[in-house]
Design goal:
seven-stranded mixed beta sheet; five-stranded antiparallel beta sheet; 9 helices; binds biotin
């Protein structure tokens, strides 16, 4: 734990009480000047800390920061979040998690950032990641499955994120194949799984989740392909990020253990319960060509089954799906 995390923990344990400078020095094993510096830095981050000459310091208000100690406290998971790494700004949480995976990081590692400077979206797009408002999270898995089955795990984060949004805010979040979360037809979260594998063995699967939590309409880029929304826009009020992150990690833990024990079927059923496009006419951008057809459901390997107008069946493994008639830019 860093000195900053230790001092926050101390303040939280003694909420409402003054803690003397001397006591903070002895718990953190740092000098008086270093304590003062930590307090100043915390104030810059938005912590409201009262200082009284004869009594010491007292925490009055905490900002909506994601700190590993807060996330880990009461997490109660068996695998996901055994190690939680939070950082203020980073290029991309997926990128850092991939690096840490190469360095031998354990399965279940969670990486969160307050801001991303090069957030990655699907198909080489950028993921807008301003500071302090959203959730940018990556989870490292090392599943004992063949790389061919890896796409199944995309559905895991989709179910976890949508169920979390529904449980906490009753948003009626729905999934869009393969990995968008929509509320009222607007994108509220995006998922990006990145795989490092040999022919028969997965080394690391990094599951990236980006959730628009407190972003305002003005913070969305003008050239979005799909209309976007955030929890704040839907709820009409700013929401704390910590309960959302904690519940989502708990769901991912549950779903992953279920996947390891029972395979894809239970996950597939949960995903289909959140899916709106069954039997709907859609257009699929495959990159090289665009096809249209009627959605027939999810195949056991995660492919989307599409009935084409000529009566043939197409198994779509990657592509951008949208219902025909939906307004999309770009
Ligand atoms: C998409 O819908 O295009 C996928 C967006 C995925 C964004 C998340 S934010 C956390 C993680 N780190 C990244 O660089 N990307 C994913």
């Amino acid at each position: 734990m860093t000195s900053r995390e230790q001092i926050i923990q101390l303040f939280r344990q003694r909420l409402g009480d003054y803690i003397s400078g001397r006591e903070i020095c002895s718990v953190l094993q740092i000098s008086r000047a270093a304590v003062w510096k930590q307090v100043e830095q915390l104030r810059e981050l938005g912590f409201e800390i009262e200082a009284r000459r004869s009594r010491g310091y007292r925490l009055l208000e905490s900002p909506d920061l994601l700190l590993s100690a807060d996330i880990s406290a009461e997490l109660g998971t068996s695998l996901i979040g055994r190690k939680v790494h939070c950082t203020s700004e980073i290029a991309s949480t997926n990128q850092l998690t991939q690096q840490l995976a190469v360095d031998g990081a354990p399965e279940g590692l969670v990486v969160l950032a307050d801001a991303q400077t090069a957030g990655r979206g699907r198909m080489g797009r950028c993921w807008t990641s301003p500071a302090g408002v959203n959730v940018y999270c990556s989870i490292l898995l090392r599943p004992p499955i063949s790389p061919r089955q890896a796409p199944q795990l995309t559905f895991l984060t989709a179910v976890a994120a949508a169920e979390t949004l529904n449980a906490l805010y009753s948003l009626n979040a729905r999934v869009k194949w393969p990995n968008d979360i929509l509320v009222g037809g607007r994108k509220i979260a995006g998922l990006l799984n990145e795989l490092s594998a040999e022919t028969e063995q997965i080394h690391a699967l990094v599951m990236g989740v980006g959730i628009n939590v407190n972003m305002t309409a003005a913070q969305f880029p003008a050239d979005l392909r799909y209309p976007a929304t955030s929890v704040r826009i839907e709820m009409g009020a700013v929401q704390p990020r910590l309960p959302l992150v904690r519940l989502m990690l708990q769901r991912i833990d549950e779903l992953y253990l279920e996947f390891l024990a029972q395979g894809f079927s239970p996950l597939r059923r949960r995903w289909e319960a959140l899916f709106d496009l069954l039997d709907r006419q859609v257009e699929v951008d495959l990159g090289a060509r665009i096809i249209s057809g009627v959605v027939g459901g999810l195949e056991p390997d995660g492919a989307l089954k599409l009935f084409l107008p000529d009566g043939s069946v197409e198994r779509v493994l990657a592509g951008d799906v949208k219902p025909i008639g939906m307004q999309a830019k770009g």
